[in-house]
Structures are given as structure tokens and as C-alpha cells.
Amino acid sequence: MIQLNKQGTFFHNGAPCPTAPVTADEGRRQTMAWHILQSHNTSGDPAALRIRFDALVSHDITYVGIIQQARASGLKRFPVPYALTNCHNSLCAVGGTINEDDHVFGLSAAKKYGGIYVPANQSVIHSYAREQLAGCGKMILGSDSHTRYGALGTMAVGEGGPELCKQLLKNTWDIPYPEVVLVYLTGKPRRGVGPHDVALALIKATFADGFVNNRVLEFAGPGIAGLPMDYRSGIDVMTTETTCLSSIWQTDDTTRDYLALHGREAEYQPLQPGPWAYYDRSVTIALDEIEPMIALPFHPSNAYTIREFLDNAQDILAAVEADARARFPKADIHLLDKCRDGGVWADQGVIAGCAGGLFDNITEAADILRGESCGSGYFSLDVYPTSVPVSLELTRTGVTADLLETGAIIKPSFCGPCFGAGDVPANNGLSLRHTTRNFPNREGSKPAEGQFAGVCLMDARSIAATARNGGKITPATEVDYAPQPLPYHFDQGVYARRVYNGFGHPQPDTELILGPNITDWPAMPPLGEHLLVELAAVLRDEVTTTDELIPSGETSSYRSNPLRLAEFTLSRREPAYVGRAKAAAALEAQRRDGKAPEHLREILDKVGDGTALLADTQFGSCVFANRPGDGSAREQAASCQKVLGGLANICYEFATKRYRSNCINWGMLPFTLDDGTPFPYESGDCVFVPHIRAAVAEGREDIPAKVIRTDGTVADLLLHVRGLTAEEQEILLDGCLMNYYAKRAD
Question: Which of 565, 603, 602, 596 has the alpha carbon at shortest distance from 685?
């Protein structure tokens, strides 16, 4: 089904080849990724990329903070097309006027700086980018982790807000040239197997050992030709869950037809690997061997074939229950109750968002359900078309009517089911979703308050098959139906009438409309000569997601208010964190006022002359986690820690580049430990890092530190800060990216 190869691979005449008449370095220059990255590289050094993107995209959880950062740093106009979509905070009943205030701010910013404003429920962020911004050979940067348009020949990257801020100020995205992994597709999917099945199989094969971590996936092979564009995009958007950096696909007439359909045929160009392209690794996917898949809580990589799951449901669900009880001791968890009457029963099906709500997914779901019924029991089916143009075509073709007749509910374009702001199941509910993630709490439950629900990821086809059986989980390959593919017609008039497109025409006299929840960032001091941080949270999970660092769902309403949002930091994972971090920040405030508390001097006395050290030792909080930052690109996972006085993260490895970048851009030191280094320390213990400012300024990567435990004992600890660019050194020294820009604007 899927084969992984860690050895370098040449690609010749459309197939992998063990040898070649060129060197590996010459072959690397023949990949699609090489040509696109180098065409956007401003550094002059092919190994050290400084990328300028062709377009930017953000949604209404992130764009306010990004624009506020850029405004504080001297923003005058948007230098490239920047689309502000409103697909996350669309439930304007949550938080009073807060969400709609953000939307009004977004429109005023689009007018002032020359941006593109997509009103609420018109399109989810990635559909609009595919329909209106993507093009062959382009690069797009988004403040959402699922920014992936590789199937349209566009290399797209999801990063935290500060990286978009850099682009708005005409600066660059700086990375070493990444390794490139060939994803070679063969065969053709069977009836009932959808893009989510292929994606989940790929994630399962690559996630656990980081096989493609921070690498570019380059899709090629004969299997691509048989895939419609929606199918390709459905696979591509989920590559984020492999933790790859970006993706790119070879293009063909299907790509050209999609762009032409959307009035942009001029954006097409043929892309394919050169005659002797070389890849650092390769993945081979036999599409004809892929089976319907299900990803169990709490990660897309926790995947099984649906048939394997059904045959072993008692054992698999027992393991999920045990995992859930360890994570959420207050919740009374009963997933094994779903096993009854010869099957496993779900309570809910949802087809939504940038992965699920595509035209072809919904039409084939309708083919499976046509003339059938979702039943009148506990099971429900909700369908969210990904954009108004898609919804309009579903209506015109009669697909919407077919689904409504079965008992399914059609809802507007909205990302809520992907992050916990829509279709929250009942307590102990089991939800099947063709969405992007099934991390803890992303369905909106609050296990810290005794609530619990589980989300399984499945393709729209198998969700429809399950709905047809009243909620009994069923792979689509095991139901009798005849797919009836429909041609898609895109109506440009929908956007022409409703979307504000001011790119190239800023109106600088326009006043930004700031609701009461939209606040400026608090002052953030530069890095001190020495550093003393208290461990405010010690997280020993194998991986800590950004959803755990700053929860999604109702917290989204406060993303424009840094201080209020920070109150939610780690609230569903380590509720005591906020209080500890605030207490540390209060001590630092006293120290800065010249009223250093005796407590700090006593700690510093353990490592030197406490009185002498006090004046130059910055004090704050720190989070330890084994591997933090998997998941969303949201910068708030880092910025909320900084707002509360956080000064560092300590880990063995950052799960994603984007989270490490977020820490740096918010002035938090990205400390790592050598594998195997014990870390037996707990919350309340402190870490003293002498001469940290000099170490960062000089680019030292090995940094000796001391741990002062609450019992007064002291231990040595070797920290690392590896691979900082010169700009990242300056950002850390200045205290954050905003300070960096403000300092240079003076």
C-alpha cells in the first residue's frame, strides 16, 4: 500500500531509478521544488533561502494580530495580495460583538492597506486561495497550518503570524534549503476510496518517526493522471499532518482545466521533475491498494483500515479509553458502549472545510445516500460546502436537495468543525469527520469540566455509507452505489459581488475600526544579561500540540485581545500554569522597579552572589515539553506564554519549524536538550542561564545552565540554541519581532 525509502532516489522518465549519469547535487536542481524555491529566493545563496511570497492568506482568528503587529512596525500598504477570510470566528453569537468587531476591523484594514476581504461564510480560507490566488510556480504564505496548494502547482506554507508580518514589511522567510521527498503515485483508487483515505494512510506511515518532518513533498507518478483536482487537493491539504514543510505536484491538463474554469488559465504552466531529478527520500503509494481508513482519537496518524478497526474494535477502543482517562482524569469515558448489535455505532457525521467540503466529496456522498435515510436516531449528518460557489453549484445540480431529502443538514462555509466551534457532540459522543484534525478537544468538549467526546477522521464516502446505515460505521467499499461524477461550473459573480478586492489601491486615510476587544500588544522588554526561569508547566506527553498550549473553540473570540486570550493558556492541559506564570511575572515587575523580592535573591544565592546578580538577571516562566508545537500554525501558542512573562521553552525537539519560529519571533528562547538527557525536574524548579545575552549575540549553541530545585539542590544542565540566523539572534536580543522592527525604524 505505502512503501518508504530513506535512501536517495533518482527519478527518470516518470519512474524511480537507482542510478543516474548526474550527481545527486545536480539531480536536486531538477526537482520542481528547487525551481520554485530558487525563483523566490532573494539571498543569492541556494543553500540559505530568503523567500518572498507571491500572496498571503489569513483568517479571522489571526489577521487582527498580524495587522496590529505590522502596524506597530511601520506598515503603510500591503505589498502583495493579502486575503483576509472570515471562516473561523463566523459564529458571531459567541463573545457578544467580539467576532463581528474583528470582521469590521478586517474590512477597514483591507481598505486602508489595499487588501482582499472575504466576508463571513463566503469561503473557507483555503478554498478561496485555491480558487483565486494559486497558480503554477507560485508561493503563498498563510497563517493557518493547512496552507497547502501543491496540487495546483503552488508551494504553500503555513506559519505563525510574525512570518506574515515580515512579508508585509517586505522582509523574507528564511530557512536552509530543505530536503525533498518524492511521493510516487501509482494505480487508481477503487470505488468508495476517497482522498482522506489516501491522506490518512500517508500520515500513518510517516508521522511517528518524522519521516518527512520539515521536508518538501513532491508528488509525481502515473497515478496522478487519474485523480480529479478535488481528489488531489483533498490529499494535499492533509500533508500538513505529516509535519512536512510544503508540497508540490506535477501539473497536467487537469490542472489547466481547473485554472481555466476559475478564469485564470494564464496561471497554468507545466511542472514536472527533470529527466534526472534526485530526491533525498521517497514514498511510493499504490492507490489501488488503499482501503477506507479511520483515524481514532487523538491524532490523524492513529489510523487503521475501517475493516481492521471493526474487526478489533473492543481492543482498539479500550486503548483509546485508557489514553483518554490518562489525559482527562475528571471525565467519565465510555467509548466501548459504541460496540453493540454486531457493529460500532457513531453519533454524528460531519463533512466540512478545506479537506471535506469539496464539490466531488459532497456529490459522491450524495450518490451513496440518494434515496436512503440518515435515520431518526441519535446519528446526525451535517455538510458544510467549502465555499459559496461550491454551495451554489450543489444547489443548481440538485445535490443539495438530494442530501436534504435523506435527513442531512446543509450548513454554510465554516471551519468550526475542524477546531471545536461547530457541531460539538454530546458527552461521550463519537463523531466521524471529514475534516483535518482529531486532536484532543478540537470537537469542542471540555474534559477538564468532566465533558468528553471523541472524533474519528473518515472520508466523506464512508461517512455517507455510515449515515446510510443509521450510524453503524461502514466502509464505502462495502455498500452498493454507482458514482455519478458531475461537471463543476464556477460562478465568478458570487465573489465579484461580495468580496472587497482593494489590492493595489490602498486608502491610507481610512480609519481602522477597533472594537473594545481589539487591543495593542503589551510592552515586552529585551533579553537580560542573565536568565532565571521558573518551570511553570512540565509536560511529559510524547507530543504537545498547539491546541493544548492554547485551546481552540470559544477562545478564538479573544484572539484580538492578547491579555484576555492569555488567560486560556494551557487551560485544558495544565490549569495551574497561568497562575504560576503570572506570579513569576509579578516578581519580575518588582525586580524591574528596584524592589527585588527576597525570594529571587535566595534562588540566585544558590548559583552565585544573589545580590550582585539581581540587577542583571531577567526572571520569568518557562514551559518544558518533550516535543511541543505539533498542529496549528497559530502564533498564540507562543505569544500567550510571552504575554504572561514566558521567556523560554525547553524541549528535546520542536515538533514543527513553525512553532519554533513563533517562539523566536515572540522573544522566547528555543532551548533544546540532547536526546537521552534526563529532565527529572518539576513545576516550581528554576533554571539559571548565565550570560545568555552574550551567548545569543555571539551565536553560541551550547549553553551551560543550572537547575535550582525547590528543595534547594542544584544540578548542571546543558542547553542548546542551534541554528539561529543573524536576524533571529537580533529578534531574541530585542525581546520580540515587534521590538526588532521598532528599534530599526527609529
Answer: 603
